[in-house]
Amino acid sequence: MPDTMSTRPVPRPNQRPSELRSATPHRPNVLSLLVRGAQGRHWTFAVGVVLLALVLLVLVLTPWISPHDPATQDLGNRLAGPSADHWFGTDHLGRDVLSRLMWGGRFSVTIAAITLVICAVTGSIIGALAARRGGWLDELVMRSVDVLICFPDVVIALFLIALFGTGYGTLIAALTITGWTPFARLMRGLALEINSKDYVEAAEILGSPKSYIVFRHVIPNASRPVVAMGFLRFGHKLITVGALSYLGLGVQPPDSDWGAMLLDAQPYMERAPSLGVLPGAAIFVTALSVTMIGQGLDIKKRRKRAKEPTAIPVPPPSTALVEGEAL
Amino acid sequence: MLTFLIRRGMTLVVTLLVVSVLAFLIPYAGEGDPARKILRARVNDPALDPAQVEALTKELGLDRPLYVQYVDWLREVLTGGFGFSFTSRTPVQELVVPALGVSVSLALAALLLALVFALPLGIWAATARGGKVDNAVTFMSQSAVSAPEYWVGPVMVLIFARYLGWLPSGGWTGPAYIVLPATALALRPLGYFTQVTRAAMSDVLSAPYITAARSRGLSFPRTLVRHGLRNSMLPVMTLFSFWFAGLLGGSVVVEVIFNIPGMGRLLYTSVINNDVPVIQGGMMLILTLAVVINTVTDLLYGVLNPAIRVSSHA
C-alpha cells in the first residue's frame, strides 16, 4: 500500500534509470550537477567549470589574499607599470590594480548573483503557477512576458533611475523587472510538459493541492533546465551591471566594481592601457565561464529530452528569443 | 488571427497606459516637489526663489490632484507632444526624431555586420557537427556573447584610432564614423546569431526532406541553399528584429563611448540632466517601438510559417 498512498512516482517496468532519477522529487543541487561530471559534455563545459571555480576562489579569498588595501592612494606612484609590489601596476590615484580587481569583482559578481537568484525564483514560480492554473492568470503572465521581454535592460534601468535615483535597490530592481521573464517562459513550457505526466495525474487523483504539485513535482523536475538558464543569464547580468557602472549609474563611489574601474580608466587609456583592459577581461572571463557551463548543461538536457517522446507538443521555449533577450 | 490581433492590441494599449503613468510620475518621484526640480533643471541654481517656485506651481497647475494632472498631461501628449526640453529649450520631437534615425542606422549596420559573419559560420558549423570547425565556432560564439561593448569599444578606439589612426575615435559625421561603433555593437548579436543559425540549420539538415532532396541527386550546396536556408532562416530573422527593437534605445553604452547622437545617448543625457520632458517622450517612444516591432515580428512569423499560426496562443 505505501506505494499507492504516496505521491511519489511509481517506477514503471520499462522506465530507464535516468528517467527514474529525474522523476523522484529529490532536489539535485548545483554542486552535484556540476560534479556529476563533464563526461559526455562539450569540452567547453569543463573549461567553464575550471574558470568559474578559479574566479570564485579568488573572490572568496580576497580579504585574505589581496596584496593591498584597494582604497589606499599613493599619488607619488600613479599609473605605474607592473612591479613586484604591484603585480598589475597602479591606477590614476596610485591604488593597487590587482587588489581593486579582487574587491571590485566581489561587487560585480554579488549584484549579478542576487538579481539572478531573485529572477530565477520568481520567474520559475510565476511560470509554474501560470501553467498549472491556466485561465486568466496564464494569460496575464504570458502577455506580461511578451511585453517585458522586449524592453532593453539598460533603458529600464535609466527609467527607474529617473524615477528613484541611483542605488543598489534601483540597480537590482531594474535588472529584475525584465529578468524574470525568460525563466517564466521556460518554466511554463516545462511545467506543461511535466503536468501531463502520470505521476502528476496520480497526485491529482489523490487530492494533492495544486501548490503541492507545483512545489513537489514541477519545480524539482524542471531544475536542470532552469539551472542551465541561470548560468546563461548570469553572464548577461554581469555585463549589464558593468554597463550601468560604466555609465556612472551602477555601483557608486566609494565602492567600485569592474565596470566602474573601466570608467575610471578611460582618460588614461593611452598612458596605461592595462587599466582599461584588465577589468574588462575579468568581466569577459567570468561571463564566458558561466556561458560555457550553461550551454554545456543545456545541450545535455536537449539530447536527453529529444529521446523521450512527450505526451503533448510543448511550445518551443524559444531559446532564440530567450537568448536574444541579452541586450 | 483576429483574436491574436485583438489580444496583442489590448496588450499594447495596457502597456502604454502603464508606461505613461510611470513617465508622468517621474517629476513627482523622489524628494522635493516637481516645481522646485523643474526650476533647478532649468536654471541650474541651488538657491531658488520661493516666489518663483510658487509662480511655477500655479502656472503648471501642480497644486491640482494628481489624476487631474495626469489626464491633462496625457491629452497634451496625445495631441501636442511632450513640450520643450528643459536644457536645450527645443521641442522634444525635434530632439527625438533625428536621434532615432541615427540609432536605426547604427543598429542596422551592426546587425547586418553580425549577420554577414554569423550565417556562414553557423551553417559551416552545422554541416560539420562535432568537428574542429564546429568546436571553434562554438568557442568563438561563446566568447562573442561574453565580451562587453564597453570593454571592446575603448580597446578598439585605442588600437584603430589612437595607435594606427585609421578610423575616427568618435562622432557621427561620415561613413567612417560608423565602423568602430557598429563593430563593437555587432559582437554580441554575432554570437547569438551564430548559435541560432547553427541550431536551426542542424535541425533542418536532419529532416527527411533533406535526405529526399539529396537522394534525388541534388548537390549538397544546392540542397543547403534551396531547402536548408529557406527553412532555417525564420528563427534567425525573429532574433534579428528582436535585437533591432532592443538596440534602438538599448545601445546606450556604445553611443556614449563613441559620442553618437542617437536615442540611447539622448535618454542617458536626459536622465543625467533630469530633463523630464525628454525622458518622458524618449521612454514612451522607445518602449512603444519595442513592443510594436516585436508584435509585427510575431505576426510575420505566423504569415511565413503556417504551422505555428494555429498555436498563436502560446
TrEMBL record, chain B:
<feature type="transmembrane region" description="Helical">
    <location>
        <begin position="172"/>
        <end position="191"/>
    </location>
</feature>
<dbReference type="InterPro" id="IPR000515">
    <property type="entry name" value="MetI-like"/>
</dbReference>
<dbReference type="Pfam" id="PF19300">
    <property type="entry name" value="BPD_transp_1_N"/>
</dbReference>
<feature type="transmembrane region" description="Helical">
    <location>
        <begin position="95"/>
        <end position="126"/>
    </location>
</feature>
<keyword id="KW-1003">Cell membrane</keyword>
<keyword id="KW-0813">Transport</keyword>
<keyword id="KW-0472">Membrane</keyword>
<dbReference type="GO" id="GO:0071916">
    <property type="term" value="F:dipeptide transmembrane transporter activity"/>
</dbReference>
<feature type="transmembrane region" description="Helical">
    <location>
        <begin position="278"/>
        <end position="304"/>
    </location>
</feature>
<feature type="transmembrane region" description="Helical">
    <location>
        <begin position="236"/>
        <end position="258"/>
    </location>
</feature>
<keyword id="KW-1133">Transmembrane helix</keyword>
<dbReference type="GO" id="GO:0005886">
    <property type="term" value="C:plasma membrane"/>
</dbReference>
<feature type="domain" description="ABC transmembrane type-1">
    <location>
        <begin position="100"/>
        <end position="297"/>
    </location>
</feature>
<keyword id="KW-0812">Transmembrane</keyword>
<dbReference type="InterPro" id="IPR045621">
    <property type="entry name" value="BPD_transp_1_N"/>
</dbReference>
<dbReference type="InterPro" id="IPR035906">
    <property type="entry name" value="MetI-like_sf"/>
</dbReference>
<comment type="similarity">
    <text>Belongs to the binding-protein-dependent transport system permease family.</text>
</comment>
<dbReference type="Pfam" id="PF00528">
    <property type="entry name" value="BPD_transp_1"/>
</dbReference>
<protein>
    <submittedName>
        <fullName>ABC transporter permease</fullName>
    </submittedName>
</protein>
<feature type="transmembrane region" description="Helical">
    <location>
        <begin position="147"/>
        <end position="166"/>
    </location>
</feature>
<feature type="transmembrane region" description="Helical">
    <location>
        <begin position="12"/>
        <end position="30"/>
    </location>
</feature>
